[in-house]
Amino acid sequence: MAVGHAPPPPTPLLPDISGIPDIESLTPLRLPGRRAVVPRWLRRAVGPLLLLLVWQVASATGALAPEVLASPGTIARSAADLVTDGTLPTAMGVSLRRVAAGLLIGGAVGTALALLSGLSRLGEDLVDATVQMLRTVPWVGLIPLLIIWLGIGEAPKVALIALGTAFHLYLNVYAGIRGVDAQLVEAGQSLGLGRWGLVRHVVLPGALPGAMTGLRYALATAWLALVFGESINADAGIGFLMNQAREFFRTDVIVVCLVVYAFLGLLADAVVRTLERLLLQWRPTFTGQ
Fold first, then answer.
1. Mean pLDDT in order along the chain per 10 residues (289 residues)
2. CA torsion angle for 264, 265, 271, 272 (degrees, to 10)?
């Protein structure tokens, strides 16, 4: 009896799925009772608003005496009066000019020294040790010497701000230059870039993130140095308003000046963040989850 081939197994019947839509076209279902997501700006504002509320309640009930700290309402009225009579805008203009001049001088000196030290081993040997030694000296302690050398006018105030900002930019720009990946330098050399071509197209762009970080630190230090600088026989500026308010126990004016300092610092930081976004578009970063 001849052996034949076994018949093939029957083909399983598949269900008809032609009427089922693609999963990409499905709209996610909303579960009943699901809460809407609270906007992030609202969550960030909860803390400051609660602090203001507690502060106002403590002032209204007498738990916080006015001579210790004025109420938020009193501070708001004082700020409105200072803006209306032009006192606060004029003081802000004077302080901004001092910060701009000090930051320009200190930034130029700090960046130039960092380039000299970071791009050249000879420059590092000549500059770095001296700068590292000087930056350990408390720059606030130099106020008496600055008064002796420069008098009590605008020069010591600007010089103090320049000293406070120069070291931040030097350290961060120098670290940014020396932190450039050596493989990028080798790649540039293999593409035929010379010394200055490497500096322009590889080293300086690689050091730019460090420079932006140094600029942020320098701006924060500039406002701190301004507070000390305007205590040197100032006759205008936000520090002058604070000194006058201290003589008359005006805590409301003192708080207004502190808020202005904080606002100007935040505004300067926002400017630097905008520069970072514009200049560092090529660098992908983690933005949180």
1. 54 52 50 63 80 86 83 88 90 90 93 88 88 85 85 87 91 87 77 76 81 88 86 81 86 89 85 82 58
2. 160
